[in-house]
Amino acid sequence: MALSLILTHPGGSHKDELLACSLLAAVHRVPIVRREPTEADLADPSIAVVDVGGEHAPERNNFDHHQFPADHLPICALSLVLQHLGVYEDARQFCEWLEPAEWFDTRGPNVTAKWLGVDRNAISRLSSPIDITILRRFAKAKRLEPGEPLWEILSYVGEDLLEYLRDLRSRLNFIAETAEVWSIDDHEALFLPRTEPMPDEPSFGIGRYLESVGKNSTVAALIYPDRRGSGYGLSRHNDHPGYDFTRIEKEPDVHFAHARGFVAKTSASEISRVKELLLLAKL
């Protein structure tokens, strides 16, 4: 159902409701109002009530978590909106900042620091002036309309997050369908063939894909299309020490090898030659 309004609480602002409102603004492009909700607001499915209202009822676009018991798994208004949009599981897997944000909002900085295994002061030291200004300006606002600078910034944040998650999921599916994993002695290499059309960033998502299929520690090298040429890029995965691509820098079909040995580019397009170059770079 299309929304007519996004409503969240007045007063101090936190990342969870700001990001939740950003996602909804990106999808629905409606005003954001900061005030206490009425019973009529909670009953109206065209009004999204975020981080306030004492009710989680996604069928009516109500997304509060404060009524959950104290021992409930850390989950905040942002989590509930991500669930509603169908991207929560991917966000938990691919946005490392999300789980700490859930802990921070539901458990506070002291417990979160202990859970992270860091000193409490580390939380404050990671604060950014960008965070402070946007949260402060959001807290001061009573109503934000599309076209106003802060509303547009929030919408950009929500749009970029959704675009990242949806593009990444599409990319992971593509890699799963097209990639090959080569066995080489005691490790593996992932090979991504050239396709038409070729993605703007051919190597995008490979690391995430390997994490998702449990091969992040077994794959030592990556081979993927070179977006600037007709051949391939070869690189170490997770800076694996088993490869030094300066070993192939003198090869006639290698036009670039980084001085630190972690990546090289070749014009070779034959798979047999690419495999040969990979073995020559192996230590």
Report on this model:
This protein is 42% helix and 17% strand. With 283 residues, it is of the alpha/beta class. The chain folds into 2 domains: 5-167, no CATH class; 179-281, Diaminopimelate Epimerase, Chain A, domain 1. The longest helix has 30 residues, at 149-178. The radius of gyration is 24 Å and the shape is elongated. The protein starts with a strand and ends with a helix. The model has no long low-confidence stretch (mean pLDDT 95).
Task: Report the mean per-residue pLDDT as an integer.
Answer: 95
- Class derived from helix and strand content: alpha/beta
Radius of gyration from CA coordinates: 24 Å
Low-confidence stretches: none
> What is the general shape?
elongated
Strand composition percent: 15-25%
Q: Could you give the order of strands across the largest sheet?
A: 4-5-3-1-2-6
Number of domains: 2
Tell me the helix content: 40-55%
Order of helices and strands: EHEHEEEHHHHHEHEEHEEEEH
Number of E-state strands: 12
Please outline the major beta sheet: 6 strands, mixed
Quick structural gist:
The protein is 42% helix and 17% strand. The chain is of the alpha/beta class.
Keywords:
single chain, 283 residues, alpha/beta, Diaminopimelate Epimerase, Chain A, domain 1, 2 domains, 6-stranded mixed beta sheet
Task: Give the arrangement of secondary structure elements.
Blueprint: E1 5-8, H1 15-28, E2 32-34, H2 39-43, E3 47-50, E4 56-57, E5 62-63, H3 77-84, H4 88-94, H5 98-116, H6 120-125, H7 129-140, E6 143-144, H8 149-178, E7 180-184, E8 187-191, H9 206-212, E9 219-225, E10 232-236, E11 254-257, E12 263-266, H10 271-281
Parallel strand pairs: 1-2, 1-3, 3-5, 8-9
Antiparallel strand pairs: 2-6, 4-5, 7-8, 9-10, 10-12, 11-12
